[in-house]
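Hi W.,

Here's what went into the run:
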Amino acid sequence: MLEIIVSKYNYWIFVFLLIIGLYSMMTKNNLMKKLIGMNIFQWAIILYFISIGAKRGGSVPIIPGGHGHGVQKIVVHATGYVNPLPHVLMLTAIVVGVATTGIALAILVRIYNSYGTLEEDEIMKELGK
Amino acid sequence: MIREHEDIVIQTVCRFFIPFMQAYGLYVLAHGHGSPGGGFQGGCILAASFILMTISYDLKEVKRRFSEKLNVLFCSLGVFIYAGTGLVCLLLGGNFLNYGKLSKILPTDPVMARYYGMAAIETGVQITVMAIMVSIFLNLVTAGKHEETVEEEDAGDNSK
Amino acid sequence: MTRKFVGILIAVIALIALMQGLKDLPKWADPNQPASIHVSPRYIEKGIEETGVPNIVTAVLADYRGYDTLFETAVIFTAGVAVMMLLRRSKR
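Here's what came out:
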C-alpha cells in the first residue's frame, strides 16, 4: 500500500483536487463558490494530463542547435526528450477554460443585477413565486 | 465600478513597467520557435499590460489609447490573418493550412516556408487573444457600462 | 442539511471509484508507459527535419495540429463576443 502511494503520488494530488472541486460544486450555496469549484475541477484534469507526459531522464522538448540551414542533418533520439503531446493538448484546454469562466462570470453579473443576491436558495425562492 | 483614485507612487512605478511588459510580450511571440512561448502566451502578457494600466490609472486613459472600435477590429483581425494564411496555401495548390506551398511566393525552400507560415499564424493568434482578454476584463469590471464611478453606488439597485 | 450529506456521500463514492482505477495506471515518469512510445517518438524524431522549428511543442501546435488551433482561436473569439452581448446593453 505504501508502495502505491509513493510511486504514483502525482495521481493522488489529482484525485485530491478533483474531489475538492466536486464537493464544492455540489454543496456550496453561493453561486461564486460553485464557479470556483468548477474551475478547480478543470485544473485538476489539466494537471493529470501534464503529469502523464513526464519521463525519467528526459529534458525540455526543444532541440538544441536547431537553427540555421543545416537542420536536416541532426539526429534526434526520442528517449532524451519529455513527451510533448500532452502539453499541446492542454494549451487548448486552458484557453477553453478561460472562455468558459469569462462567460460564467458575465452571467453572474446579470443575475446579481436582476435579483440583488448570489445565494442559490434565495434565488430559487424568488423564482418559485 | 472603477473609481478614480490618484496615488503618485503606484502611477510612477506602473508607468515604468508597462512598456517593458509590452516589449516582453512581443519577445515571447518572436522567440516561440527556439524557446518556450508562442502566440497564446505572448497575447496574455500583452493583455496584462493593459489591465495594469486600467487598475493603476483610470479608465479614461485606457480608452484614450485603446478605444473600443480598435478593440473589436483587433478581435476579428487575428482570426482573419490565421484563416487567410490557410486560404493562401489553398489557392497556391495545396491543402488548407499546408504551409509548404508558400515556397512559391516566398524565396525559400519548402521546409523553411513552414517555419514562416507558423510565424504568421502565431501573430494572428496573439492579436486575437490580446484583444479578447482586454475586452472581457473591461466588460466584466464596469458591468458593461464603460464609465467610471466617483462615489459609492447604491448596491441594492434592482434593475430588471 | 440533506444536501451536505448527499454531497459528502457522492464525494466519498467518487473517491473510492478513483482509487480503484489508480491501480492500473503506470508509475510516475516511467519511460515505457504507453503514452510515451505510441505516437510521440515520431513527432520528436521527424519534427525538426520536416518543419525546421526546434521547439517541438510549437511545431505540433501550429503545423501538425494547425486545424485545432484555428478553431480554438474561434472559440476564444466567440466567448468574447458572448460577453459583449450579455453585458453591453443600451438603456431601454
